[in-house]
Write a structure and sequence with these properties.
- This is Lycopene cyclase.
- By secondary structure, the chain is α/β, with parallel strands linked by helices.
- It has nine helices and 18 strands.
- The strands form three sheets. Strands 1, 2, 8, 9, 10, 11, 17 and 18 form an eight-stranded mixed β-sheet that branches. It has a seven-stranded mixed β-sheet with strand order 6-5-13-14-15-12-16, sandwiched between helices.
- β10 and β11 form a beta hairpin.
Length: about 450
């Protein structure tokens, strides 16, 4: 979204030499590596592990910025490669990813539990959806066109600091071992388990891409939250509809709760929402998707060891209160590229401390049942300008704006929750980190 770097603009102070420049001067740019040579030429300025939203976004930014040689390690075809996913975000413009955007909406709608609808237009922001396959093709084409970038199909293993850089041990498809060396390594691979937290909810969902015999959807409006569904004991649940045409849409059931549902339970919830709530009596399911995203106040370290950093969901890019990730990934990638250009290797936090503190309060209040989630979000969209809400959810509002938004919520339960948080222990969550970066990475 709005990529605010920690560093000043190039003209505001003398630029420091980029961290890779001292061993690149006097040499030509990195050779284009292909075929068998790909597995012997193992040195570059930057190695990026994982080719999801975070890895590809950073590779794209660094390649277009120029200067650094970049190696992206992505798993070969097989079970380690995630299925097609959809990522959604809002922004004023998205020229860098526009070719991969499948659809966008200028209006959003919230349905209250009693059926009342609130339609908002968050101008100048638009809500966009892009597919992971299209995004991958777009970034790969840019990487292929650059003499300073390459993609290696391999399974990344251990990463360790070595000298003034780091090395990555990989296994290539034919079984050979490959060692990649770089000054900097950015690891976007999912964590095996979530860090300890005071509160952890999971955003889990299942969606159908449906086709109806006649036009049943308004392609100009996305239903962001439809609370006309049964609510769980802890957290909240809602429907979600992204119309792709008048007869084609993604229809989804989503919960913020402590544990995922069974496949049968998702199917029952989706069938109820599609047939009873939306009134889609005759439709065909053309594709399905599902995913699990952590919503947690856990602390995600970004620096693993000298020269090795975590990015993406593994580095805390998922917004705890919403599950959205793609916008934060874009901001962080832009900031990293600008920092490296100016000679800094600091990876900025994906979200500010104030935003994370507010998220921790909201998660705890939802989990304890102190606030009514559907009522809270419905009131928020009814009483606050939509553009301000989206900036608030993106961590781009001022303290004064946030204070005004807070007054529109259940003040006393929120204050009680904020007062108890410092005394709560952080515990490990039994669920593993998400297997994929799905549609709500979509978010």
């Amino acid at each position: 979204m709005r990529g605010r770097s920690r560093h000043t603009s190039p003209g505001s102070r003398p630029r420091r030499r980029a961290p890779w420049s001292r061993h690149r001067r006097g040499r030509r740019t990195a050779d284009r590596v292909s075929g068998a040579d790909r597995y012997t030429a193992g040195t570059s300025d930057v190695v990026i592990l994982g080719a999801g939203a975070a890895g590809l976004s950073l590779a794209d930014r660094l390649t277009r910025a120029g200067g650094a040689t970049v190696t992206v390690v992505e798993p070969p075809d097989g079970p380690l490669r995630p299925p097609e996913r959809r990522w959604c975000f809002w922004d004023t413009e998205a020229d860098d990813v526009e070719p991969a955007v499948r659809a966008s909406w200028s209006r959003l709608r919230i349905h209250a539990p009693d059926g009342g609808a609130t339609t908002v237009e968050p101008h100048p922001l638009r809500y966009r959806m892009l597919g992971s396959a299209a995004f991958e093709r777009l970034v790969h084409a840019r990487l292929d066109a650059s003499p300073r970038a390459r993609v290696v199909r391999a399974v990344a293993g251990t990463v360790r600091a070595v000298g003034d850089g780091a090395e990555v041990r990989c296994s290539v498809p034919d079984g050979r071992e490959l060692t990649l060396r770089a000054r900097l390594v950015f690891d976007s691979r999912p964590l095996p388990a979530l860090p300890p937290a005071r509160t952890t909810l999971l955003q889990h969902f299942c969606g159908w891409f449906v086709r109806t015999a006649a036009g049943r959807f308004d392609p100009g409006v996305a239903d962001l939250m439809d609370f006309r569904v049964p609510q769980p004991r802890h957290g909240l649940a809602f429907g979600y509809v992204l119309p792709l045409a008048s007869d084609h849409a993604l229809v989804e059931y989503t919960e913020f709760s402590r544990a995922p549902l069974t496949p049968a339970a998702y199917a029952a919830a989706l069938s109820h929402y599609s047939r009873k709530v939306l009134g889609l009596h005759a439709f065909t399911v053309e594709a399905t998707e599902h995913g699990v995203i952590p919503m947690t106040d856990a602390r995600f370290p970004r620096r693993i060891e000298p020269g090795v950093f975590r990015i993406g969901t593994a580095g805390g890019a998922t917004r705890p209160s919403t599950g959205y990730t793609f916008a934060a990934v874009r901001r962080q990638s832009r900031a990293i590229a600008e920092g490296l250009r100016d000679g800094s290797t600091t990876v900025p936090a994906p979200h500010g401390r104030r935003a994370l503190a507010m998220d921790a309060v909201l998660l705890r209040a939802l989990d304890t049942g102190r606030i009514d989630g559907p009522a809270y979000f419905t009131r928020l969209f009814r009483t606050t300008p939509a553009e301000r809400i989206l900036r608030f959810l993106d961590g781009a509002t001022s303290p004064r704006e946030e204070f005004g938004i807070g007054l529109r919520g259940p003040v006393l339960p929120m204050l009680r929750t904020a007062a108890e948080l410092p005394f709560l222990p952080r515990r490990e969550h039994p669920a593993a980190a998400p297997v994929n970066e799905p549609e709500k990475n979509r978010r």
